[in-house]
Specification:
The protein is mainly alpha-helical. Helices cover 55% and strands 2% of the residues. The protein contains twelve helices and two strands; from the N terminus they run βααβαααααααααα. α2 packs across α12 and α10 packs across α12. The chain starts with a strand and ends in a 7-residue tail after the last helix.
Amino acid sequence: MSDGRLVRLPRGALAHLRRSDEGLAQLMATVGRCRLRVGFAETHLASLVRAIVYQQLSGKAAATIFGRFRALYPEDAFPTAQQIRRTHYTKLRKAGLSRQKQMALRDLCRHVVEGRLPLHDVEELEDEALIERLTAVRGIGRWSAQMFAIFQLGRLDHWPVDDLAVKKGAALVQGLDAMPTRKEMEAWGERFRPYRTVTAWYLWRSQDIQTPG
């Protein structure tokens, strides 16, 4: 994994978001400039494998397991889908991968090898087509597909309405007593097109802000 690259936003993107919502504008002023970084994984396959490994685990535990998984293969390059498919389940189990995650990894690699999930052209796919292709894989839901689109491909208009931190940030920005529903999130997010990813980034950052009391 690398440190990624800092996203260069189109001219006027931040001004558009400030005009779109007063509460978001205040949050943006508090947080400062957008420092969204993307492209952390060395390959698209590496990004998807990491997403599966990290599901439902703390960051520290997931990083340990991912490191053990990576150590099963030569260090010079991330393993191919075929290499992962050929890895015996006992090795994956010793690395810390549960049966469910092994099944998800094998299904991912099966899709890649059999051509049902070609990764060479994902940059060219429309957002919904990309999500449909990814969510056909066991263990990859819409949220994971959106995280791939945002943090691996650098897409700027994804709106992860089911992300808990984004919903908490939305409630904070709007001064709500309860978190908004999915329908309310979708409606509110329309005003931020075509930079809803950037909005989500600021909402994520809102969780880092210490509030008095």
